[in-house]
Amino acid sequence: MSFALGLTGSIGMGKSTTAQMFADEGCALWDADAAVHRLYAKGGSAVEPMRNAFPSAIVKEAVSREALKQIISNDSNALKMIENIVHPLVAEDRTAFRAAASADILVFDIPLLFETGGETAMDAVVCVRVPADEQKRRVMARGTMTEEQFEQIRAKQMSNDEKCARSDFVIETDSLDHARVQVQDVIRQIRARMTDA
Question: Which residues bind ATP (predicted)?
Fold first, then answer.
């Protein structure tokens, strides 16, 4: 029986880097964002339902994220419709991963885990954290969004303090070495728990 560990944290907190550390330690990793990319790619299972709902979102036989952003900004109901198409497909992808994975610990990298109620499907949750000023510095350093866009994303997400309070484990991602030691410690604790069960 494998252990399902939800991994969450707000934008710029070091979640993707931490997820890779779990994978490096032998955990199987499922990434919600990567699943959406698969669904949106040419031949992905979201392409046809999206074409039916938003024909202009399909570019070169794939779902265009840029086109979707435009549609969402022009239509207040579009986001809900997109979520209704994508969320069940993402859930199917996650179920298939769970069925195929052979590792003892399965890590589910889900940015909006608490916001979507996904924590109920996990055996435990780990949240990553850095101070707010470091979070902002990291996101701005990527050069992929404006300060205003960053603040909009942050406003839509549950506060990271609340995510941490609701999690079983918290990992400070202030440095790679410190994060790696904490990842190894979380894995040790989970494996000990599984042995005792």
Answer: 12-17
